[in-house]
Structures are given as structure tokens and as C-alpha cells.
Amino acid sequence: MAWMRRPVRIRYGPPQQFDLIKPRGIFGIAVPRPVTVRGITQERKRGNKMSQIEDLVSAVSALPHPLMVREIRPPRNWNEWRTCWQESTTTHQLAGLLHEGFNVGFERFSHGEQEYDHADRLETYFAIADGWERGYSQWHLESDEGKGYVIGYDRYGNRQPGNPAWFRQKLARKAFDVLAQNFFKVEIENSLSVQHRSRDPWGTDFVSGRILPILMNFFAVEGGAVRNLSGLEASNHNEQQAINFLLRLAAFVFKWKGEEIKSWHIRPEEKAKQNAEMRKNINSAKLWMLEVLSSIGKIDLLWDIYGMRSSFWGFEELDEPCLAKLKEISLRTELRTTKSPVGKTRLATTVEEACLVNSKAAEFLKLYEIRKAEYARLAAIREAERQTEEAEQNLKRLATTPADK
Fold this sequence. Notes:
Layout (H helix, E strand, L loop, with lengths): L7 E3 L7 E5 L8 E4 L2 H26 L15 H10 L3 H10 L17 H12 L19 E5 L5 E4 L1 H29 L8 H7 L3 H8 L2 E2 L2 E2 L10 H19 L12 H28 L5 H5 L14 H11 L3 E2 L10 E2 L3 H6 L3 H41 L5
Antiparallel strand pairs: 1-2, 2-3, 4-5, 6-7, 8-9
């Protein structure tokens, strides 16, 4: 009969201690059978392999930790950091030095070591970061021809090529990113908390020191664009930090009222020299900052700085060099035939023409002139009324006071 046919043996996965014989029949009973000789051999091999793995694990665990068998320390000071930077050649070493550079101190450990300060560190980082936003081709040198490197492999095992131009651009961007997190961001936070401190460090550290020329060079305006900024809109978070820093610096520069540097530790003649230098730097920074604000589309910041959007009683005046710079910026505005009723594309010849095509500098300048004139007119009326009231009071007093006999 069909149900009496020879049963079929079915194996489930790798050989176990028992194989099951599953007969085809009406009973469906599984009967255990001892493991075959082949199964015993495989089991022994598996045991030997596990023993070898355990031996390897024991051998690896017995090894000392690789970080415990070598000396590890940070650079002692900025002198040693500079030495490491000059001697390093691989991108990993240089990127690591840039990453940790702001954690290095300036103490001198020998008499012959050169003395450095925070401005020296900033000068180094800004010099390395200069041109971080430039295209890849602008980092290429003629001496790079024929130089190729492997910088990694993709998921398929294919080589990823690299060359010196790519490495230069990468390190410049790394330096800019470190500046964004350790300088731009930190100084913005410091400026916001200045009201809780006895002095404003931006005046002594930035404007009267060596840092302002470094900033003016790094963010110089060339061809209507700010160096080391990608455009009107920030391309990433770190670039936005740089723009925010420039806006805070602009507010400080234009709100500066000629406060003198106060210090009891320097002689009067030295203090006078520093105050004169401070005023000179502020005046030059204003002209530079107007160009920067115009290039990044932030001239509107002047409306807030000079109270143009408020109705307070008073008027903040711009000096003549700043007014001349605003007019110069306004007259660089183009009147195009597609947007203006002109016969051919040309530059604006008046501030009013620049206002026609929505020049922010021209609009600010024109409204400033109107407000200044109206403020002067109303102030003159107020003074005349005051004098009239005073004269009337004097007249009444004289009329009611009897003459001396």
C-alpha cells in the first residue's frame, strides 16, 4: 500500500545530535535516529575551530592597549604648535593641528622662545583660511602636474583620487570652520554679554589692537564682493557665523561714541596715543564696513543703528567721510534699459536716480538727509519758541515790577 512505502529522511539545517525520520503515512510519527559518522566529524571540527577562536581572543585580550604604551601629550605652547605645523606634510596631521590649535597656550618654557599672543594665533588661522570659498581650480599650481594620491576607497573598492589642490582647499576650509566655532561664535556671545561687564573688550582687543587689520584684509571688498564670503546668502552654518560676527562688529563700530581707553597702568602720554589710534581705526573701519554691508545686502542695519526706524527725540549724525562713501556706493548702481526708462545701460549720476532702482545705500542716504534737515528745522522752531516764551515772561515780569524810586 501507499502508506507502507519507505519513509523519507528530512534534515533540518546543520547536523544536530539527532536526525528525524518522518514517515509518510497516516501516523506521522517522527522517530529519532543517532547522528551519522559524518555528523560526528563535523561536530569535532566545529569544536576545534571554537577552541582556536577562544585562543585568539585570549591572545588579543592579553595585549596592552595601544594608547597605553606610548607618550601622548598636547603641544606645550604655540611655539611647538608652529614647529609641528611647519614640519608636518600629511593632511591628517595638519587637519589635527588646526582642530586643536585654539586649545594651545602661549606660555614660554625657555628663555630663548619667542613670545606669542592671541593675535598671532588669529593671524595664522586667517592666513590659512584665506580663499576657503574659492573653486578647486584656483588652488592648482603648475608644480602639481603629475602628482596624484589615493585618499580612500568607495563602497565598491574603487580608489578615490586626490591631488595637492584638493588638499589645500580642504585645509583652508578646516581653518575657516575652526575660526567660526572658536572666534566668530565666541566673540558674538561675548559682545551680547558686554552689558554685564565693566568694559567692552572689542574696543581694546579688536579696534585698538592688531586684530582689526587682520579682519579688514580677510573680509576686504574686491570687485563688489567680500573676500572669503560666498555671496549674499551664507552657504553653510559656519559662514553664517562669520556674517553675524561682521554685523555685530558693524554695530560696535558705528555706535562707538569716542569713549576713551581707561587704564591706570599706563602713562598719560601713552594713553593719549592709544586713544588717538583708537579713533583713527574706528574711522577707517566705518568706511570698510559700509562697503561690506553694501556687498552682503545689509545696509539696512544702519537704519537700526541710527534710530531711523524709531521716533525717539534726537538725531545721530554720520560724519562726512561716511556720507561721501554712501554716495559713492549709490552712484555705482546700474540703470538698465530693462528696468529703467533710459536709452542705454549706465551708472546712476545722482542719488535720486539710484533710489529709482532701489539702491539701499541711496535710500538710506536720502532719508537721512531729509530727517537731518527736518530735525534741524524743527529744532530751530523749538528754539525760537523757547526764546519767545522767555521774552514774554521777561516782558510780563517787567510790566508787573514797579520801578525803583
